[in-house]
Amino acid sequence: MRPNVAFGASGAPNATLGALDATNATLGRLVGCRVRGRGRGFRVSSGTVNAVIVGAALVRDGKLLAQQRAWPPKHAGQWELPGGRVEAGESEAFALARECSEELDVVIEVGARVGEDVALPGGRVLRIYAATLVSPGEEPRAVEHRAVQWLGPDDLDDVDWLPADRILLPAFRALLN
Ligand SMILES: Nc1nc2c([nH]c(=O)n2[C@H]2C[C@H](O)[C@@H](COP(=O)(O)OP(=O)(O)OP(=O)(O)O)O2)c(=O)[nH]1
């Protein structure tokens, strides 16, 4: 069933094609070449980007929500932002709202991009968007994860982040400051 979602201006479903163009431009910058084609597999000179993983930089009262993975064993105990793979036919904002509904049981509003794309193993990229709770009093809960916590700017370095998220820490800090 589709979750109850709320999108900000950047997440309008009809923005999907524009988002794909933006994706191509971003990927082109990443690999230093022009990126051709639309769809889920982007042909680039150095390989194919197979999937976009979206993450929500969910901020409330100057703090960022992080969640602790329970699996796979290699990453269990490490921290990441809520999110996941953009499925076929979804806008990135919709995927983010769906993942936050599934993982945290909250409704979010999706805002602007945060930081640059980070390459992940397997030809995937991690792409972060700012987000807020539609009902700020609603408390996210760890539905699929081991734990969740709100981190202030001074707490960001105290957490064992996934490697890609560690690269994004300056962008997370800038968002909070
Ligand atoms: N959600 C999320 N995933 C991240 C982050 N940083 C990072 O490296 N990843 C990686 C971990 C996983 O390899 C991948 C996301 O997989 P996932 O298992 O959470 O998402 P999903 O349910 O949609 O994945 P799948 O089962 O469809 O493959 O991205 C992050 O901050 N948030």
Automatic annotation (TrEMBL):
Family matches, as CDD domains: NUDIX_MutT_NudA_like (cd03425)
Give the signal peptide as a residue range, or say none if absent: none
PROSITE patterns per record: NUDIX (PS51462)
In this protein, which residues make up the domain named Nudix hydrolase? 49-176
Q: Which reaction does it catalyse?
A: 8-oxo-dGTP + H2O = 8-oxo-dGMP + diphosphate + H(+)
Q: Name one GO molecular function term.
A: 8-oxo-dGDP phosphatase activity
Please give the Gene3D superfamilies that the UniProt record associates with this protein: Nucleoside Triphosphate Pyrophosphohydrolase (3.90.79.10)
What cofactor does this one take? Mg(2+)
Q: Which UniProt keywords apply?
A: DNA damage, DNA repair, DNA replication, Hydrolase, Magnesium, Metal-binding, Mutator protein
Q: Which SUPFAM superfamilies match?
A: Nudix
Write the Enzyme Commission number(s) for this entry: 3.6.1.55
Share an example GO biological-process annotation for this protein.
Answer: DNA replication
The record's section on PANTHER family has:
8-OXO-DGTP DIPHOSPHATASE, NUDIX HYDROLASE FAMILY PROTEIN
- Family statement drawn from the similarity comment of this UniProt entry: Belongs to the Nudix hydrolase family.
Protein's name according to its UniProt entry: 8-oxo-dGTP diphosphatase
What is the organism of origin for this protein? Amycolatopsis tolypomycina
